[in-house]
Inverse folding.
């Protein structure tokens, strides 16, 4: 589905795929690592929405996942 969206003409200028995900979401990380490997590009990870700052401790920190540059 991600690749189908990126193949649309309206996505022609997209250079990176960016999302947030919790550190323990193994399925999502596996998907993003797989895409980065398939596209032979980088997957960068960094804390983005911090548990205490943004969620008052009620939700795990959301990490920024940034894949790119995308092949075009």
């Amino acid at each position: 589905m991600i690749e189908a969206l990126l193949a649309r003409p309206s996505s022609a200028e997209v250079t990176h795929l960016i999302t947030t995900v919790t550190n323990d979401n193994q399925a999502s990380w596996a998907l993003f690592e797989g895409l980065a490997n398939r596209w032979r590009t980088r997957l960068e990870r960094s804390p983005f929405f911090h548990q205490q700052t943004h969620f008052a401790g009620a939700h795990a920190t959301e990490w920024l996942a940034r894949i790119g540059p995308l092949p075009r």
About this structure: The radius of gyration is 14 Å. The CA atoms of residues 51 and 60 lie 5 Å apart. The longest strand covers residues 42-49. The chain is about 30% helix and 30% strand.
